[in-house]
Amino acid sequence: MKVLKFGGTSVGSAESINTLIDILKRESQAEQKPVFVLSAMSGITNLLAETAEQAALGESFTGRLADLEIRHFDAVKKLVDIHNQNPLLTRLKIYFNELEDLFQGVLTLRELTPKTRDLILSYGEKCSALMVSRIALQSVPGALFVDASTLVKTDSSFGQAKVITQLTDLLIQEFYRENTDKTLIVTGFIASDDAGNITTLGRGGSDYTAALFGAALNAEAIEIWTDVNGMMTADPRIVKKAFSLTDVTYTEAMELSYFGAKVIYPPTMIPAFLKQIPIVIKNTFEPEFEGTVISGKAQPSGHPIKGISSINQISVINLTGSGMVGKAGFSGRLFSLLAREQINVILITQSSSEHTITFAVHPADAPKAKALIEQEFELELLAKKLEAAHIEDDLAVLAVVGENMKQTPGMSGKLFHALGRNGVNVRAIAQGSSEYNISVIISANALSKALNAVHDAFFTELNKTLHAFCLGTGNIGKTLFKQLYNHSKQLREKNKIQVKIAGISNSRKMTFNAEGLSLQNWEQNLNEKGEAANIDEFFDRMVGMNLPNCVFVDNTASPLPVAFYERAFKANISVVTCNKLANSSGYAQYRNFKDTAIQRGVDFFYETNVGAGLPIISTLKNLMVSGDHVQRMEAILSGTISFIFNNFKGDASFHDVVKMAQEAGYTEPDPRDDLRGTDFMRKVLILSRDSGYPMEASDIQIENILPQSCLDAQTVPDFYAALKAEDAYFNELKERAEREKKVLRYIGKLENGKAVISLQMVNENHPFYMMSGADNIIAFTTDRYYERPMVVKGPGAGAEVTAAGVFADLINVGAN
Ligand code: ADP
Ligand code: ASP
Ligand code: MG
Predict the structure, then answer these.
(1) What ligand has the least distance to the C-alpha of 201?
(2) Cα–Cα distance measured from residue 520 to residue 653, given in angstroms and rounded to the nearest whole number
(3) 363 CA to middle of ligand 1, Å?
(4) How open is the CA angle 95-101-107, to the nearest 5 degrees?
(5) Distance (Å) of CA 201 to CA 7, 84, 816
(6) Which of 191, 281, 681, 701 has its CA 20 to 30 A from that of 172?
(7) Residue pair 75/40 in contact by the 8 Å Cβ criterion
(8) What sign for the dihedral angle of Cα 376, 380, 383, 389?
(9) Which residues pair with 4 in a beta bridge?
(10) Domains plus CATH for the chain?
């Protein structure tokens, strides 16, 4: 059997009810009778709520009550045979009289409790289900009106009551068993508590009623009939290009609806998921549309994400306090307090510095949340361990959702690019712990533009074919080819991007094919059939083949290819490189590359020059193009040095930690190549230049970590001996730091055009205090991110992530 739920618009007028009755007639022929769940007529729940609220303020309710009557009577008069109208009109009139009494009570007392409100709202569903059951009775014998408040049992949290599932299941099963010959027309949304008081399941809750019935009766499907073609890639009222989805998973539907896709109420997914019953979203006004299926598994959709949703009005509360926030127990206290007071926290982001918590709530809850915090943390506020809570209004959340998102490179880059290019300022970011969504908080008035821009970025068919010429077949080159090979089908089918590798060369051999070289056995082909390598010739051939969307990919660390970049740009070929030498040699060269690429309208991407696959270069770029100004950058950009200082604590000697780093494969053969900071310096130089300073390498001041004796050592074993001899020096540094409750960090900093890399001691309030493994981290303090910096942190080395960064750069070529 099936459960079918019809939303407000499906019972909104005589015409829609007629359409609904057709579906009802057809479906109730089934051997096992379906159950029909109905919402109130569209707009009626709002009207009831508004009337009650106004009555509590002393306003008359008679006009609104009359409107309510007319909406229902009108439908009855149009749809019920004239001789049979009276009994129904009388029953409805009884409801309206009861409502009148309730409104009068509210008006007299000037008080509207959540309990009374629920009781008043329940009439919307009672009227519509009663009315439709009687209309149905004319053509469907056995149509029976069911007030679900006697079957769905909840606790007494009025407004959004919690269902007592076991009891509800039993009651529904028993009732269905007793009425197998009937066609049940059930009220959605309403329930009752232990004492029989009417409760409601939260706005939009009729969907949930349907799922409760579906789960209790082990339905084969739960159909949600509404006014649009299923679940769409975005709210079609805001995004005109939104299109219907064939199928989504329970998780995706949950995330999309949680972040505002009103088409289905989030809790609906739970009973369905537990029983693995598919939910099908159908369109009453286009019944032949097959519907969106929500189930445990979804077919690949052809796009990297499933949809974009949004909550158009939220408020954000910031809590700051170095003595309090971030300490164990604080968040627990804060969020249990809010939960206890039924304040729904939509989203939380904790800054990396760990002494700020930002969370989003509905605007109506914000003042109450602030007051509660002031009460609960009065002592901490007095002691200045916590600063006064700060509310920001007129914000919105935009969330990009999809279960396959995490396997697709470049998703957040695409999102921020679309927002940045359109001048939408991102106030905060929360990557869902589920990895099924990335949500950003933006200004509410930018929402429509943002939704459309992001929708375009993710769903507009690009249909582009890139022709890549790749130099270098070391670790990164190999990994890139492997990733491209594994992902090419998906890239083509889902992203409509085809990457053809038209040329490959290493220092020994080179090979070409305008149709694309095989990525499965490229290595064998190159070795066996390749011509002798010649870099001049490689470039000539690349230019000569004159292929569209041509990209030169430099996966080497050699100075040789760099000499050809300018030629590439001048031939309208984009360059993607992980080779740091191009941007960290003379400034004039750096400038020339950038200017030439812009002049020729081609791309020059080098995300992996800093922090491998981490979005550092692109974040900086997006900040700059959206008109922000970088005041200060602080960073740890050497994975090796990061690893060493993260482990230099407790009893470990510096000598032992360096040795360990080398044994774990984190260092160059001579660890001094890392410890001298040259590589770190190159990255700082590139970032300085990208933030607008025409610097040379010599402008960057590097404070040596190593004493002279270690630098002077002739061989690596000599170096280790010298390092051991300096144990006392390093121990003294470590102990001093520990005494002051600090840690040692080798930090690069750019401020006011001055760049310094130095060994520093930082305390627990510093964003770099908590670091692990060989992570890279960078904190941008800008005109917009001035209270707390924007931080990017994560693994900043390794072939997989670097190749993924090159991959993302490559497929982004020509994206704008
Ligand atoms: P019902 O009254 O049938 O329960 P709702 O108004 O609750 O209908 O939900 C349907 C509406 O949800 C649509 O009219 C549409 O404007 C809105 N909506 C928001 N996001 C989406 C989305 N991603 N897909 C489809 N509809 C959406
Ligand atoms: N009528 C209720 C509301 O408007 C429940 C629903 O439509 O699902 O919220
Ligand atoms: Mg709804």
Answers:
(1) 2
(2) 47
(3) 22
(4) 135
(5) 15, 34, 46
(6) 281
(7) no
(8) negative
(9) 36, 223
(10) 2-227 (3.40.1160.10), 307-458 (3.30.2130.10), 464-606 (3.40.50.720), 616-797 (3.30.360.10)
Sign, Cα dihedral of 254, 258, 259, 260:
positive
What is the distance in A from the centroid of ligand 2 to the CA of 129? 13
Q: Which helix (H) or strand (E) holds 116?
A: helix 114-137
Q: In the 8-state DSSP scheme, what is residue 406?
A: G
Cα gap 568→553, rounded to integer Å: 11
In tens, the pLDDT along 159-191 reads: 999 999 999 999 999 999 999 999 999 999 999
Q: Supply the pLDDT for residue 432.
A: 59
Task: Report the nearest-CA residue for atom 5 of ligand 2.
Answer: 204
> What pLDDT score was predicted for residue 667?
80
The amino acid at residue 792 is V
Give pLDDT, residue 588: 96
Q: How would you classify the pairing of strands 356-361 and 426-431?
A: unpaired
The residue type at 714: Q
Phi and psi of 26, rounded to 5°?
-65, -50
Structure tokens at 73: 């009577």
CB proximity list for 159: less than 8 A, separation 6 or greater: 114, 117, 118, 200, 202
Strand partners, 279: 222, 294
Ligand 1 probe mutation, 263, 280, 286, 458, most atoms within 8 A of CB = 263
Q: Other CB atoms closer than 10 Å to residue 793's CB: what's the count? A: 20
Kindly give the distance from the C-alpha atom of residue 197 to the centroid of ligand 3, in angstroms, as a whole number: 24
Beta carbon of 188 within 6 Å of any ligand 2 atom: yes
How do residues 585-610 score in pLDDT, each as one tens digit?
Answer: 999 999 999 999 988 778 999 999 99
Res 797: pLDDT: 79
Query: How far is C-alpha 566 from the chain's CA centre?
Result: 38
Question: Which of 36, 228, 229 maximizes ligand 1 atoms within 8 Å of its Cβ, making it the mutation to test the pocket?
Answer: 228
Give the helix/strand (H/E) hosting 91. helix 85-109
Q: Distance between CA atoms of 379 and 381, rounded to whole angstroms?
A: 5
Q: Tell me if 533 sits within 8 A of 512, measured CB to CB.
A: no
Token representation of residue 54: 């106004």
Q: Which two tokens stand for residue 502?
A: 């038209």
Residue ranges of the chain with per-residue pLDDT less than 50: 462-463
Q: What is the pLDDT of residue 165?
A: 96
Looking at the CA of 260, name the nearest ligand.
1
Given this model, what pLDDT does residue 711 score? 92
The number of CA neighbours under 13 Å toward the Cβ of 805 is 28
Q: Compute the distance between CA of residue 500 and CA of residue 513 in angstroms, rounded to an integer.
A: 9
Please give the Cα distance from 766 to 757 (Å, whole number): 17
DSSP string, 580-600: THHHHS-HHHHHHHHHHHHHH
Using CA atoms, how far apart are residues 635 and 707, in angstroms rounded to an integer?
A: 23
CA gap 141, 127 in Å, rounded: 20
Q: Helix-strand-coil percent breakdown of the chain, rounded to 5?
A: 45, 20, 35
Asked if 282 and 225 touch (Cβ cutoff 8 Å), the reply is yes
Contact 30/249 with Cβ under 8 angstroms?
no
Q: What is the dihedral of CA 99, 105, 110, 113, to 10 degrees?
A: -70
Give the CA-trace dihedral at 630, 793, 321, 311, to 10 degrees: 80
* Residue 7 Cα: closest atom of ligand 2: 7
From the alpha carbon of 42, which atom of ligand 1 is closest?
2
Cα radius of gyration rounded to whole Å, the chain = 32
Which pLDDT value is given to residue 495? 78
Beta-strand (E) ranges in 529-675? 531-532, 550-554, 574-577, 604-605, 630-636
| SS3 label, residue 176 | helix
pLDDT of residue 456: 78
